[in-house]
Amino acid sequence: MKRLWKVGLGKNGEYEAGAFAKNTLTVDFNIHVDISHAKDRDSLIPVMENAFPDAKHKTHLNFAAQMNQFINVIQIGDLVICPVKTSSTISIARVTGDYKPDPETGSPTRAVEWLKTDLPRDTFKQDLLYSFGAFMTICEISRNNALARVEQVIATGKDPGDGTTPITSPKTTDTDAEIATDADAMVDLDQIARDQIEKRIASVFTGHDLTNLVAAILQAQGMKVRVSPPGADGGIDLVAGSGPLGLESPRIVAQVKSGTITVQHPDLQGLIGSVQDTQADYGLMVSWNGFTPPVRKRLNELYFRVRFWGRQEIVDNLFSVYEDLPEAIRAELPLRRTWTLVPDEGEDG
């Protein structure tokens, strides 16, 4: 029976680019040799003891269980959820190949077919996002009828919620006894909180209000800002500059796209033209729904000319100046700092 898994692509997203370019999932766990001889969790424990000689025994057990899932338990045809850290999105793949060591690094890999990429996190309802937020690199997602709902997202682009026909998960075998699922995995509370904050921003700061939010962030960062009125703006939603009159460098021209609008290459070209026409120093392209692949390919090329703010950058910059934002904005988006426990080292490879 088909199953649904979450596989992380590096603590800092270091395997994400290769995953999409090569249609391959890669995990690390300090393994750089062929481990195809290991057919169950117990045979992987010595591998983990060798890879992590200073780790605790429970860490070896945890990592061995996760690696057993990756190389033995996950079957061709299973679906995989990959939270993409570098873009704060979610991608869905179907497993198409058995375990193989990477020919260059020896790291464990599985071939996949990407079914959906760059899905905004709010495509999924909060209960699934909670499961996707497990700290472990590899775990099965089984709660809340997750598999059927992910299949609906693949087919329709929408999460129907936990109301479709339930699917019974396969019975756990002895070799799977230590398999971690979303039911018992420690979750990333920071990401769960961030998801809730993003949903609030998406619902409150729509249309021109998102431009006003970006303007308030820039003002809190010390810039003088002029916002274009709602309606046709000639490709300029706001301008900002430094100094008492806003005439000093850096001088910025910004476009702001809210809602489900994804920035296309013509939008980017229009912003670059506006930077030249206004004799600004830099452009700022802001898009709550992100950027198309042709636009993202130009990030490095335009690094010294244009900054790109997706929802991740909007929220990061908002956090950095939240206390200095106007009271009206803080009233619409009331936040407070919280303390959470750092996860044990045995949760993530």
UniProtKB/TrEMBL annotation:
<dbReference type="InterPro" id="IPR007560">
    <property type="entry name" value="Restrct_endonuc_IV_Mrr"/>
</dbReference>
<dbReference type="Pfam" id="PF04471">
    <property type="entry name" value="Mrr_cat"/>
</dbReference>
<dbReference type="InterPro" id="IPR011335">
    <property type="entry name" value="Restrct_endonuc-II-like"/>
</dbReference>
<dbReference type="InterPro" id="IPR011856">
    <property type="entry name" value="tRNA_endonuc-like_dom_sf"/>
</dbReference>
<dbReference type="GO" id="GO:0015666">
    <property type="term" value="F:restriction endodeoxyribonuclease activity"/>
</dbReference>
<dbReference type="InterPro" id="IPR016984">
    <property type="entry name" value="UCP031853"/>
</dbReference>
<protein>
    <recommendedName>
        <fullName>Restriction endonuclease type IV Mrr domain-containing protein</fullName>
    </recommendedName>
</protein>
<feature type="domain" description="Restriction endonuclease type IV Mrr">
    <location>
        <begin position="205"/>
        <end position="316"/>
    </location>
</feature>
<dbReference type="GO" id="GO:0003677">
    <property type="term" value="F:DNA binding"/>
</dbReference>
<dbReference type="InterPro" id="IPR052906">
    <property type="entry name" value="Type_IV_Methyl-Rstrct_Enzyme"/>
</dbReference>
<dbReference type="GO" id="GO:0009307">
    <property type="term" value="P:DNA restriction-modification system"/>
</dbReference>
